[in-house]
What does this fold into?
Amino acid sequence: MKLCAGGLVLAGFASYALPDPAVARDVVSPAAPKAVWTLSFPPKQEIGNLFGMPTFNCFSYGSMPSRKHLCRAKGTVTITKKMPLLFVPNDSVSEQPQLFDPLPDDAFIGLDCERLSLTDSALDNILHLKSLTMINLEGNEISDAGVVKLKLLPNLVNVNVFGTNIQGRTIKELGRLKNLVRLRMGCNKLDLACLGDIAKFEKLEFLNLDRVNLCDQDLLKLMPLKKLWALEIPNNPKITGRALAYLKKLPNLRHIDLRCCSLTARDLLGLNASQLRFILLQPESFTVGDQHLIKDGFKGSGITLQWKSREAANSPELYSPLK
It folds into this structure.
């Protein structure tokens, strides 16, 4: 089988695209891809799929960037590779993580293992994939012990451990990843002392802390993140209007997700003269009157408001613009 990974089309994969492409910069593979790859997979067992990816934008997706399907991971496959490759294994690797072992150490830029029930021990079988710049472990059975192993993948730019079993007590080990830009670790029972360690990730530009029981004072720990461009803190009801004063002190912050926090319309209007360019809200958190008050208050501010309703959570149309 011979395939070409050219002609890729950008499309949403998960979450949403931020609306300021002039600020969101591209991140490229650490090495130029080979012209041709010959990859050997089990001849009688399909273990996943291969996708081609363009140079990816580290702010344009929730877990992994857009991709175009190339072929199934079965048998011997020859690929004319004009774009970096993403490997998406199936659940066969959950019971047989050794299926990762024959993969070339420099073939893939991305590995998407979302919700495959992988454990910490299974990560040992991917640590030879040194070319990885993105790894999606969302929804797996990864603990703090597994996080320590990720430091052995030196080119990682994007780490997604959303909805796993981590507590954050070893997150400081990711400080060894010198190019880490994006960290998604929401929906975990975090020891919030780990925010002090995250604050030392000098290059961090995107951080997701969805549903981790944040309070206003916790955001103070993030003030050293001078390059932070996007912060997602939805579903943290202890976040109130007091926290917004802290957010204004992050000099490069342009995007904030404040859905399901305990904010009033008056609180939000205090952001209309800030450096922000995009605010994501949930309409059910406000009365219709307050929604229009917020909309009117941000007119001419240069800040885009987006409203994502609870009903639209599983819809391809992620935004519900206020009319």
Summary: Residues 288-297 form the longest helix (10 residues). The longest strand covers residues 36-40. The radius of gyration is 20 Å.
